[in-house]
């Protein structure tokens, strides 16, 4: 009897050089969530960066959408093995949000409405690598995809791009978030197939 390697599935990888190993190409936008979809009125939406010493930087929706925004086109890769190429977003760069933030922390915990969390190294949010996105394909971001705004960190598996994000908490030490506590990889590089602890 032959040996079937871990991760074997019924779908073959599409022959596209843009895909990380183990991924297949999709043209739709699958919806995967850890809980129910929250409904967040814009007049109650806010986003806060909290430093390791407790200093808070907060934006309401009006102040946030008045910040300089960028058009972003990136491939995205889900840990469940689908990839979607050339996705188009609009959002505020984390570089812009961190301009007035003083921190000695190297790690960030992203927090979302509903209690979801995920950890990301700070260096993976800066230098044009991450955004708080509020439009997809030229339209306001739908609630099922994280609207009104979600974290977008496209170079990591998509569970790191927290839906319904409402804040970032600076941390001196790396700590696991929701899926990381359940056994997912602490970093999540799709090109290295860092899906689970030990990968």
UniProtKB/TrEMBL annotation:
Any single Pfam family the record assigns to this protein: Oxidored_molyb
Entry protein name: DMSO/TMAO reductase YedYZ, molybdopterin-dependent catalytic subunit
Domain Oxidoreductase molybdopterin-binding: 35-179
Residue ranges of the region described as Disordered: 1-22
PANTHER family (alphabetical): OXIDOREDUCTASE MOLYBDOPTERIN-BINDING DOMAIN-CONTAINING PROTEIN, PROTEIN-METHIONINE-SULFOXIDE REDUCTASE
Native source species: Actinoplanes regularis
Coiled coil: none
InterPro entries xrefs: OxRdtase_Mopterin-bd_dom, OxRdtase_Mopterin-bd_sf
